[in-house]
Amino acid sequence: MPRPSQQLLPPHSPAPARAAATVVLLRDMPGGAGVEVLMTRRSHRASFAPSAYVFPGGGIDASDADPATHALADHREDQDAQQRTQAIAAIRESFEELGVLLARDADGRFVDGERFAGLDRTAPLAPQIAGRGWRLAADAVFVLARWLTGLDRPQRFDVPFLVARMPEGQVPVADGSEQFEPVWVRPADALARHAAGGFEMIFPTVRTLRWLQAHAAVDAVIAACAGGRPLWTSTPRAGLLGGKEARYMEHEPPYGELVLATPDGQVLHPLDWQHERPVPLLKNVQRLTVGNPGVMTGPGTNSYLVGDAASGYLAIDPGPLDEVHLRRLHDAAGGDIRWIVCTHSHADHSPGAAPLAALVESAGRPRPPVLGLPSADTARPASFFRPDRALAHGERIVLEGGGLTHTLEALHTPGHAANHVCLLLLEDGLLFSGDHILNGSTTVIDPPDGDMTAYLASLDLLAAACARHGVEFILPAHGYVLGPAPQAIAALKAHRLQREAKIAAALEALPDGTVDDWVAHAYADVPSRMWPVAARSLLAHVQRIRAGAVT
Description:
Layout: E1 17-28, E2 35-42, E3 53-54, E4 57-59, H1 67-70, H2 81-98, E5 103-104, H3 125-132, E6 135-136, E7 142-148, E8 156-165, E9 179-185, H4 187-195, H5 203-212, H6 218-224, E10 232-234, E11 237-241, E12 244-248, H7 255-261, E13 279-282, E14 285-289, E15 302-308, E16 312-316, H8 323-332, E17 337-341, H9 353-362, E18 370-372, E19 389-390, E20 396-401, E21 404-412, E22 421-425, E23 430-434, H10 452-469, E24 473-476, H11 485-509, H12 515-522, H13 531-546
């Protein structure tokens, strides 16, 4: 993990998270037209999410965990004590807030509204259920997801989102105190009304509805949740996009960067891609993005400066020959660039290296050496590169000053290019991955300089290095910071092998096919406009398959 001394912001202590439970009540629309979800508007005086449309739920009470209450509830074998408590809390809250009761009579039938009209919604529920010989239907409640309120919020909750079918013969009636205006709504309609500004919802509600809208029936929702464990667990994080707060889940590209730059959840880190200013990620790490956005470069090629005013700086991937960008790199380092490293020789990474070194020298400082590996004979002509000195695998470059040390270790990682190098910033547990690992896309493996077997072996090498040095974050040449590193590398390798299986199936199904045929078969899930690019990686997989390297 990064050193505390290198964090950009003073530490902030998040509020503790209170245990709660929410239930998403669903019903099928007539004629198989999809599902509807029951939502209700919170009081404008509520301390949390005032006036927002929500699913019923609230804090877990001591009575919900009482063994005597558990004895009144039916449950499935896959529900542990905590899940039973959560289900009981959700049942109680839906009754108190909306008058909806998930309970069965002695014959095992769900009770309807007329039969429990005499229950007092303001009194404890369990004794009233026990007095009638009914059972709480905790077994009809399934876990969808687990949400933990963002670290920046003054009130925080640890809440499972549970799903259940709405019992027949019941009509929701809001309590008029905490909840108002119960409404049945299709997930897609709720999302559309929210986008239009007329249906206020908080982030977890929106993301839950987005998931629900893909399911055509309540049975499909419950089947998806039948595993007994949350389909996802998320603590959303927020940054600034266009000057406004924007929240993200763990699987989304900006998330890792927000964890690195604002570990305590403070909503201060800008996420807008711009090319004029350096973006501080730590005190000793800055990113400057070249103004070369495109299909192959995403928002642009990332250059990085590692170090500080006391130690001087190492520049990673100066980019193409862009004089404006090189001047910005020079100025962001106060002109004190002592090393330049190119991760590989492609045209958006290395051509700026020698001109940047000359710029530093022209300003009166020693010319920094350009390091990396020379391009191989297999490289395309536009990717010719000769460093001042070749980096050895495992070689360390050290910057020191002001009582701090910044050590970068070079790792030879062929695959995307034969001369590809990654760098580890050892003291802060960071991996500068060049084009070997990207955020938001998979890198192209273009034979003959690209080699799929070497690429996968290099992923294994990086995984081992990250484990050895406690690396948690990956800083790619394109896109936001990735994290956590071990999971990102494992997911990338799994994705590559899954794609390889599809390519192998295409070869078997179409033994006399062309590359275009195989791409259409194996990359059917990718937009066709990207197939010409995908064809290059497909060839790398085909070579690996035919060489018998597949395990």
